[in-house]
Amino acid sequence: MPTPEMHLGLISAMEQEQTGLLALLQSPRRETCGMREYVTGMLGGTRCTCVLSRWGKVAAAATATMLIERFGVTHILFTGVAGAASRGVAVGDIVIASSLVQHDMDASPFFPRFEIPLLGVAQFAADATLSERLARAAQRFVEQDAPTLLSADERSAFSMREARVHHGIIASGDQFIGSQARLDMLREQLPGLLAVEMEGAAVAQVCHEFGLPFGVVRTISDDANEHAPVDFMRFVERVASRYTLGIVTRFCMPG
Ligand code: SAH
After folding, report:
1. Is the pLDDT of residue 44 over 60?
2. What is the residue-wise DSSP string for 154-178?
3. Which residues are catalytic?
4. Is the pLDDT reported for residue 114 higher than 60?
C-alpha cells in the first residue's frame, strides 16, 4: 500500500503519456521552473508531482533533480515507451526495470565500458519494493483492464498479442535505436537486456546519488529496428498513454 507520507514524482517523456494523469489529479497546483511545469496533487491517497521531462538523459536528469530538491518527492516513477531488445518482448508488452545502464557511456580505457566515471557504478538497481508493487499493478492492469481497453481492430493494427509483463535490464542513451545491427551489438554487450529507451538510466543515476527509491515502467512501442511501427505517435496516443494511466492508477489506488 502506498504510505500516506509518500510523495511520488511521476516523470513522463511525452505529452500524450501524461495527459490522462493530469486529468485525474485532485486539487492540482502548478509551478513552472527550468522550462518545465510541475503539477502537484492527489491521485487516490497518494500525493504526486507530475512533470514532462522531454526526451533524453540530460532532460530526465534535470527533471529528477528538480523533483527531489525543489518539490521534495520521496520516490520517483518514470513511465513511458521503449523499444524491445529481447526476442520474448513484443510491442504492447510492459517492461519493469530491475536495473538500468547508460548504453552510450564509454570512458574506456580509463573506466570499464558503461561504468559512470568516478562513481564506480555501471548498472543502477531499481528499488525492489517499488518495482514489485509496479509489477503487481501492471499484472492486474494487463489481466483486468487491458482486454477491454483496445478494440480487436486496434490490436491487429498494432500487431499486438495479449500483453505480458517483464522484469529486467533497461538500457538508456541519447539515441533512438532503429537499426537491427545497433540493437544486436547492445544485446551482445548487455546480456539480459529487455528494452532500450532514452531517459531511465539518467533518472536512476540521480536517484542513486540522492539515495531515493525509484522505478521505471515502459510500454513497448517498437522493435528498435528498421521495422519499428510505421505510426509511432499513433501507438503512443492510442495504446501507451492508456497503459501508463492504467498502471499508475492501479499503483496509486491498489484496491
Ligand atoms: N520514432 C519516434 C521517436 C520516439 S523516441 C518518432 O519519430 O517520434 C522518443 C521516446 O520514446 C523517448 O522518450 C524514448 O525513451 C522512447 N523510445 C521508444 N522507442 C525507442 C527506441 N527504439 N530507442 C530509443 N528510445 C525509444
Report:
1. yes
2. HHHHTT--S--EEEEEEEE-SS---
3. 17, 222
4. yes
Ligand 1, from 198, 217, 225: best to mutate by most atoms within 8 Å of Cβ? Answer: 198
Q: What are residue 74's phi and psi, to 5 degrees? A: -105, -20
Give yes or no for residue 202 CB within 6 A of ligand 1: no
Name the band, by pLDDT with cuts 50, 70 and 90, for residue 96.
very high
Cβ of 25 less than 6 Å from ligand 1: no
| Overall size of the chain counted in residues | 255
- Can you tell me the distance from the alpha carbon of 242 to that of 101, in angstroms, rounded to the nearest whole number? 27
By most ligand atoms within 8 Å of CB, the mutation choice from 57, 81, 231 for ligand 1 is 81
CB 141 within 8 A of CB 114: no
Q: Residue 193 in contact with residue 86, Cβ under 8 Å? A: yes
Q: Ligand 1 pocket, 221 CB below 6 A?
A: yes
Give mean pLDDT, residues 99-113: 98
The alpha helices in the chain, defined as continuous H runs, are 15-24, 57-69, 128-140, 146-149, 152-157, 180-189, 200-210, 232-235, 241-252
pLDDT digits (tens, 9 = 90+) for 172-184: 999 999 999 999 9
Alpha-helical (H) ranges within 43-141 are 57-69, 128-140
Which residue has 504492447 as its cell numbers?
92
Q: Whose CA is nearest to atom 9 of ligand 1?
A: 55
Q: Is the CB of 127 under 6 A from ligand 1?
A: no
- pTM value is 0.94
Distance CA 180, CA 172 (A): 16
Task: With CA atoms as reference, report the closest residue to 210 among 52, 6, 87, 64.
Answer: 64
